[in-house]
Design goal:
Layout: H1 2-28, H2 45-51, H3 58-67, H4 88-100
Helix pairs in contact: 1-4, 3-4
Amino acid sequence: MRTLLIAAALAVGATGAMANADEALNKAGCMACHAKDKKLVGPSFKDIAAKYKGQDVVARLMDKVRKGGAGSFGPIPMSPNGPDKINDADLRAAVEQILKG
């Protein structure tokens, strides 16, 4: 019984973390250029997850979001996104969620 309660609490916590990451992505304006499963201006989150599958790239992708850039998924540049748009904790949660696919 105790194991079941712990598992349920972890599932609820994970759902809350995903909702927070989704909220952060919306608030920061990421969804203006990205979608979960189709290319818009930038690549889909599904394509990002596939490209980096099995790699430890959270810090690298956080840096890329902060600095912006182009070339990884085509010629259209991504503008920099500073901590005023998305704080480090929310950015980390969002990148981790994206990489989980």
